[in-house]
UniProtKB/TrEMBL annotation:
Residues 10-171 form the Thioredoxin domain. SUPFAM superfamilies: Thioredoxin-like. InterPro entries: AhpC/TSA, Thioredoxin-like_sf, Thioredoxin_domain. Pfam families: AhpC-TSA. The lineage of its organism: Bacteria, Pseudomonadati, Myxococcota, Polyangia, Nannocystales. This is Thioredoxin peroxidase. One of its GO terms (molecular function) is peroxidase activity. The keyword Transmembrane helix does not apply. Keywords: Oxidoreductase, Peroxidase.
Length: 185
């Protein structure tokens, strides 16, 4: 039996850290900053090419991208996979994603985000520690509006529900605060 390690979780209402990751074209992007006309950012951290549930999740995100774009939310995905692993993974996706996918998320970055980290069960699975799933939604102030961190691939936010929820949160008539930001104790 192993002793659980402690993780430092990002809390709603906290500033989202700079998260510089490379793309396949060699450029580097800071995922805390939305691009284009968007003023919010959604970062989807997935386990990697070895995870069929991650492939399915990314495939489900592609047709929903217009809903996120319509409410000013830029979307990007990232994993700890290498560039070569990401290239192979793109061939496994059902359709070419309409959002950028980045690679080489480091263990230090995974820890900075408060993600759970797993070691591969075998060399056939993958060749590096990988982050378990996480979804981070950063508002126009660079503040963490929504956070979902899981310790396994079976628990993730339902993307259509998330898109509808963010649309409701972004509606100024609802005056919806960041939930869970109050310190406890």
């Amino acid at each position: 039996m192993t002793t659980p390690s402690h993780t430092q979780k990002l809390h709603p209402g906290a500033a989202f850290p700079s998260l510089e990751v490379p793309s396949l074209d060699g450029s580097v992007r800071d995922l805390c900053k939305p691009q284009g006309d968007a003023d919010w950012m959604m970062v989807v951290v997935y386990r990697g090419r070895h995870c069929p549930m991650c492939t399915r999740y990314l495939d489900m995100l592609t047709p929903l991208l217009p809903q996120f774009t319509a409410i000013g939310v830029d979307v990007a995905a990232v994993s700890g996979d290498s560039a070569a692993q990401l290239e192979r993974h793109l061939g496994q996706l059902g359709a070419e994603p309409s959002f950028p996918i980045f690679h080489s998320l480091s263990v230090t970055q995974m820890q900075q985000l408060g993600l759970y980290i797993s070691d591969p069960r075998s060399p056939e699975e993958t060749d590096h520690p990988f982050a378990e799933p996480g979804v981070f939604v950063i508002n126009e102030h660079g503040t963490l509006q929504v956070v979902d961190i899981s310790n396994n691939p079976f628990v993730r936010p339902e993307l259509d529900t998330l898109a509808r929820g963010l649309k409701w949160i972004r509606n100024p008539d609802n005056d919806y605060p960041i939930r869970g930001a109050r310190p406890y104790g």
